[in-house]
Amino acid sequence: MIEFVNVRKTYGDFVALEGLTCSIPRGATVGLIGPNGAGKTTTMRILTTLTKATSGEITVDGTSVTHAPEHIRRRIGFMPDVFGVYEAMTAFEYLDFYARCNGVSPATRPSLIDDMLGLVDLAHKKDALVMSLSRGMAQRLSLARALLHDPEILVLDEPASGLDPRARVELRALLNELRNQGKTILISSHILSDLADLCTHLLILERGTLVAFDTLDNLLNRQTQRRIVIHTLAPTTELAAVAQRHAYTCISDDEQPLRYVLTGSGDDATHAHLLTACIHAGIPIHSFASERNSLERTFLQVTEGVI
Amino acid sequence: MTNYQINPILLRELRGRMRTARSFWLLSGFLVMVAGTALLIYTANYASNPGQIVGDSDIGRSVFLVLIVTALIALSLVAPVLAAGSVAGERERQTFDLLLTTQLQIRQIILGKIIASLSYCMLLLAAMTPLMGMVFLIGSVDVTQLVIMLAVICSNVVLLTCIGVYWSVRASTPLSATGFTLATVLFILLIIPLLVLTLPEIVLSTAVRSNISEFVFHVVLSIHPFVVIFLTDSALRTQQMWGQEFSINGQSFVVPAAWILSICYSWMLSVIIVWRTLRRMRTSR
Is B1's pLDDT higher than 50? Predict the structure, then answer.
């Protein structure tokens, strides 16, 4: 649905984005991750027609972002990382203004705004001044604004930044609902655990270069090093030997003497063999936890030494 | 029924502006300044001619001119400053990108900003209506004179607003936009007259200068609204409402009156500035 073909963006001598090429399928939820200055916001700004690419092309269902920006703007809802407010405007008026800007007809506008406020759970704040809303409420209102013209694509730049844990959970639930409605979502965030729960694909950028673009499952499976955390009932020296036989290293924890961390590249079957071997060796195991591949470690591994 | 909708930028700007206490303070201050100055002139005139009746034509004309000039001074500051904050203010509030991702055209955004700034200036002018009414009661000022003066003021307010919006698009902060705008206004109001008065002295010979200086003064300084106000007042006194006769090298010709030139200059420059503003917005998008 969204095609990036060799997209490059420079600001003077600084290269913000270099040869970005990837294809995002319809209905995907794509997490854009990368350190600060990786090119995430630049990518989003080019897609939302706010910035022109220096070279290359982005198309949405074959329509060029550069050549038909009006058409693209009708299909994209954008939520930037900052929430700009106008003075003395209520939540209803805020949405009404953007609905007018997006050409929503006067007949449907009031009911549409009520629906949007209901969707983001802000119906009770309809007449509250936007300036008086909490950060979490403001983010939800901003999301409602991005949804006013029923876009197929949502571009969300750091939607969870500055939110408290409760607001983050609520926002994640809301985004899950939108994903289930079939929207294609591009979301950038530094909170990788949130992205792991939400995304179907990941686009990893570092210093303007695409490091990886794949489905979340494929990227997690790329992880070569996996960890097993074992708690025993008594200190043991046998565990290191068992681990070594399965090509794992065993590290004991000085602060928690009965906790051992095994690191290796085996799959689930290897872990099962390891558990059996531990039992046969008479190691008094209290718990055996094969850690799930985490996005944090995948990200660190994928970006390690690439640039 | 047509599907006409009011420009959302205009609607938001008007509502947003009128909901702040600043607007009411500005309106009150403007009226106090205009009325106070008119009262001062009226009292001074009356005190210096104690034997004359209130309906004396000089008093009416003086108060009228003072009202017009005071309004022009106030609007020459208010109009560009209001406009200078329009787009730069959106940038500062970080709402500008959101506007650009909506389906509004660039020209709708710019025209909305211009008309919103103009509307407030027109409100200030309209608030002067009772004072103008008072001048009519005193006498000696006719409707034609009032319409001409208001047309000159309005055209200049349009030009100054367009200058403000242009700098607002170019500058990154409202403060720098206001600075550039006021510098441009000062250039028009101070530097141009200075150049017109001094350059011929330096560049031209005395013979040539005496031949064309009045003509150049009339044509070039018609860009200056304050000069136009006084030229128009003097022209109306001498019944030369539509044009003024000049003679160069023995050849006589008529040049349109200063107020006509002023209105033409203002609108032509406004169109050019709006075009440049739109171009600037499109290329920076």
Answer: no
Specify the DSSP element, H or E, that contains A33. strand A29-33
Whole-angstrom distance, CA of residue B91 vs CA of residue B259: 37
Going by C-alpha positions, the residue among B91, B30, B69 that lies closest to residue B232 is B69
Rg (CA), chain B: 21
Query: Quick one: which H or E segment has residue A59?
Result: strand A55-60
Domain ranges of chain B: 8-283
State pLDDT tens for residues A159-203.
887 778 888 888 888 888 888 888 999 999 888 888 888 899 999
What pLDDT is recorded for position B207?
A: 66
pLDDT at B51 over 80: no
How far is A222 from chain B, CA to nearest CA, in Å?
Answer: 37
Task: Give me the residues paired with residue A244 across strands.
Answer: none
Q: Please, which residues have CB within 8 angstroms of residue A241's CB and are 6 or more apart in sequence?
A: A281
* pTM, entire model: 0.82
Chain A residues closer than 8 Å to B12 by CB: 86, 89, 97
Question: Cβ of B285 and A84 within 8 Å?
Answer: no
Cβ contacts (< 8 Å) between A158 and chain B: which residues?
none
Count of alpha carbons within 13 angstroms of residue A14, beta-carbon side: 7
User: Is B285 within 8 Å of chain A by CB?
Assistant: yes
| Cβ-based burial of A234 (10 A; exposed 0-12, middle 13-18, buried ≥19) | exposed
Rounded Cα gap, residues A92 and A212, in angstroms: 41
Bridging pattern class, strands A14-24 and A63-64: unpaired
Burial (Cβ within 10 Å: 0-12, 13-18, ≥19) of residue A283: buried
> Contact A215/A227 with Cβ under 8 angstroms?
no
What domains are there in chain A, each with its CATH number? 2-220 (3.40.50.300), 226-303 (3.30.70.600)
Decide if B95 and A93 are in contact by the 8 Å CB cutoff.
no
Predicted ipTM of the assembly: 0.84
Query: How far is A117 from chain B, CA to nearest CA, in Å?
Result: 19
Task: Tell me if B101 and A70 make a contact (CB, 8 A cut-off).
Answer: no
DSSP assignment of A138-149, as one string?
HHHHHHHHHHTT
Which residue of B lies nearest to A47 if distances are taken between CA atoms? B101
Cα torsion A65, A70, A73, A75 to 10°: value is -90
Establish if A86 touches chain B: CB-CB under 8 angstroms: yes
Secondary structure tally for chain A: helices H, strands E: 11, 14
Q: What pLDDT, in 10s, does the model give residues B145-186?
A: 889 999 999 999 999 999 999 999 999 899 999 999 999 999
Nearest to B99 among A88, A101, A106 (CB): A101
Residues A74, B103 contacting (CB under 8 angstroms)? yes
For residue A151, how many C-alpha atoms fall within 13 Å in the half-sphere facing its CB? 30
Helix extents (H) in chain A: 40-47, 69-75, 91-101, 109-119, 135-147, 165-180, 192-198, 216-221, 238-245, 268-280, 295-303
| DSSP summary character for residue A124 | G
Could you tell me the pLDDT band of residue B56, with boundaries at 50, 70 and 90? low
Is B2 in CB contact (< 8 Å) with chain A?
A: no
Euclidean distance between CA atoms A248 and A210, whole angstroms: 32
